[in-house]
Every structure is written in structure tokens, then in C-alpha cells.
Amino acid sequence: MYSFKAKLKIIGINPFVTVPASLLKKLFNDAGKSKGAIPIHGTVNSQPYRQTLVRYSQAWRLYVNSTMLKKSPQRIGESLSVTVAFDTADRSVQVPASLAKALKANKAAKKVFENLPTSRQKEIARYIANLKTKASVERNVAKAISFLLGKTRFVGRDAP
């Protein structure tokens, strides 16, 4: 676990801290890569988080959302105590049985789903997993398959 202090900054509407270059090198070494998203965990002001370290506009940033730091957009300029470590925990998506069955029956939709970013796969899986009635699940699994085939919007997103 690596520790540092950083001022909370913002790009667009997204609060973030810059991870010091010396710690980035250690995280890259721990992750075995220096490209692509790097799964991390740690604390922000002693509050635990799980996040992904990403590179945007030539800079690596740790985005700080409101679950990591309450009212983070209103706290720009505040100095934060941050810890960070490479996260080895499994982040694979747990697909609800109803969606898995539909994906197995539709190879084209399954291929699109598997090529989506993990965060989008989780978004679709969580949405379906949180539905309460069998009818809602069936209706939304059909919408998800249609979305994956490029026919409709789903969970407020345009088809991939």
C-alpha cells in the first residue's frame, strides 16, 4: 500500500487526484503493465475504495467520486490523504442466469457483450440483477439483447 497527499482537482465534472510519478512506477510494476486500466484499492481520508486508475489526456488520474469522498465536486482544492495499491481481487462480472441463458442463445449478442468494457458489462448485469419481478427481468433481458445487437437503447445508453 502506497500513501500520498494530493489536492483534489477537477477536469470537466470529474474530481480527481494525480498519483505521484514515483508511485505510478511502483503500481505499474505491481500490475505488470503500464497501459490500460489498472485496478486499484485503498483509502481517501481513511474511507476505503475500489477504483480503476486510468490515463486520460496523457495523464494518469485517480477519479474521486462521491462514494469515495462525500460532496467531492464541492471540495475541489482540498488536500486529501490517499493510499493506493494494485487490486488483485477478481473483478469479473457475475451475469444473472436469465441474461446468461439469453446470451448463450444469441451468439452475436454474446460476442458484443464480451467485448464491452467491464464497467458496461457490470452496468447491464447489475441492472437486470436488481429487478424484482420475473416479468421485469424477462422484458429487460430482451431489451438488453436488442441493445447488444445494435437495435435499441438500454439503461439510457445508445447501442454499442
Within CATH, the superfamily of the largest domain carries the name: AF2212/PG0164-like
CATH class category of the largest domain: Mainly Beta
Say how many strands there are. 7
Q: Strand order, biggest sheet?
A: 1-7-4-5-6-3-2
Mean pLDDT value: 92
Structural domain count = 2
List the helices and strands in order: EEEHEEEEHHHH
Q: Percent helix among the residues?
A: 25-40%
Largest sheet: 7 strands, antiparallel
Distance between the first and last residues' Cα: 37 Å
Summarize the structure.
With 160 residues, the chain is an alpha+beta fold. Helices cover 35% and strands 28% of the residues.
What does this structure look like?
The chain is α+β, with helices and mostly antiparallel strands and 160 residues long. Helices cover 35% and strands 28% of the residues. A hairpin with a 2-residue loop joins strand 4 and strand 5. The chain starts with a strand and ends in a 12-residue tail after the last helix.
Q: Would you spell out the secondary-structure blueprint of this structure?
A:
Layout: E1 2-7, E2 9-11, E3 14-18, H1 21-31, E4 38-44, E5 47-56, E6 59-63, E7 79-86, H2 97-105, H3 107-115, H4 118-129, H5 134-148
Antiparallel strand pairs: 1-7, 2-3, 3-6, 4-5, 4-7, 5-6
What key attributes describe this structure?
alpha+beta, Elongation Factor Tu (Ef-tu), domain 3, 2 domains, 35% helix
